[in-house]
Amino acid sequence: MRKVKVGRKILIANEEYALRNKSLLARRKMPCLNVISSPGSGKTTILTRTIEAIKDRVRIGVIEGDIQTDIDAQRIRTTGAPAIQINTDGACHLSAAQVSDALQKLPLDKLDLIFIENVGNLICPSAFDLGETAKVAVLSVPEGDDKPAKYPLIFATAAAVLINKIDLLAAGDFNIEKAKADILKLNKKTKIFPMSAKTGEGMSQWCDWLEALTNRQSR
Amino acid sequence: MRKVKVGRKILIANEEYALRNKSLLARRKMPCLNVISSPGSGKTTILTRTIEAIKDRVRIGVIEGDIQTDIDAQRIRTTGAPAIQINTDGACHLSAAQVSDALQKLPLDKLDLIFIENVGNLICPSAFDLGETAKVAVLSVPEGDDKPAKYPLIFATAAAVLINKIDLLAAGDFNIEKAKADILKLNKKTKIFPMSAKTGEGMSQWCDWLEALTNRQSR
């Protein structure tokens, strides 16, 4: 009982910052996507390739969450996009307070879209609202097609699911139709984008979706 | 401050059950390995292949932790080994209380070694003692060689690190010498076993290590 009560208090504190972020983003009509996946599913590679593909049309800023190191922010900055690194120092997910702080450091006037790359964890980040406008889940082929059934929350709440590393489909027994069906069973409205950030296959459909998102909210 | 205090209370409650498990395992001289990794690194496949390889010499029981489904326990039982499935129903790691309960359901008199397959999460399970005799980390090649630097805790505390899916080394840019060096920087005593549970490469060294573990503790 005690645990439940306190958990709720922490969530309320997080919720206050999340509402503050949500209100800031709404005022600016700024789409902000909270990207969630297991470690190593390819989130940073997807972001660098996405930025390279559409930076002439969509100006992107990135908030990078990692337990330690600024490897990922450095990788993003090679594209020319601004990136703010947050180190959670052991914590398993980003908090809305950390994102609030990072939003103040980004040049919002010069951006059309913000990505938050959460800590690599398919579970905990799904339960913490950062005030983002939508969540994006990444599932990579080597992780296996049973992951939507085993880790349902993120797939049930994501506006888009990227099935990455499809260049490795031939090397394993990932059944992409089964994965799609399991995802749609949890969330029939989600958009599913099979892709390989490495080879570029499938990236254009995802980039079109992002562009439509920024146009819908354009100022 | 409040959060820290309460976090400590939860850890103490967990610690009491962990001590109870540790004492039970010590009385029986039973090695019990808590296997921790990202989702989809191949934990269950490693366990099924390990059981098949050494079941004539080492009798293995498995405690399976998953948020939902009993897919993994079913896979283990196809080998003939007993498996107890725990569903955490959203929680991101197994607790010592859940393991205490599962230990009572396993036929301990007929076992030489217990595996606990934790929930797929490279972060949270590292911080919760289950009373295991040692932790084993699994890192799979498609996750990338930067993971020990980015998620140091599990690599710093594991008695063994399995680098799985080495059959995919040619398909990517995973530098196995860099990964090994980063792991040994965190933990110079750990044993590193590069392997492919799929092709069987490298499995025998790992199986020899397990056999030595059960012989050291043999009754």
Explain this structure to me?
Two copies of one chain form a homodimer. With 219 residues, the first copy, chain A, is of the alpha/beta class. Chain A contains eight helices and seven strands. A seven-stranded parallel sheet of chain A has the order 3-2-4-1-5-6-7, sandwiched between helices. The longest helix of chain A has 26 residues, at 2-27. The radius of gyration of chain A is 17 Å and the shape is globular. Chain A starts with a helix and ends with a helix. The model of chain A has no long low-confidence stretch (mean pLDDT 94).
List keywords for this structure.
219 residues; alpha/beta; seven-stranded parallel beta sheet; homodimer; globular
Per DSSP, what share of the residues of chain A sits in E-state strands of 2 or more residues?
15-25%
* Largest sheet data of chain A: 7 strands, parallel
Q: Report the order of strands and helices of chain A.
A: HEHEHEHEEHHEHEH
| Helix run count of chain A | 8
Topology:
The structure is a homodimer of 219-residue chains.
Chain A lengths: L1 H26 L4 E6 L5 H12 L5 E7 L4 H7 L5 E5 L8 H10 L7 E5 L16 E7 L6 H4 L1 H6 L2 E5 L11 H11 L4 E4 L8 H14 L3
Parallel strand pairs in A: 1-4, 1-5, 2-3, 2-4, 5-6, 6-7
Concise account of the structure shown:
Two copies of one chain form a homodimer. The first copy, chain A, is of the alpha/beta class.
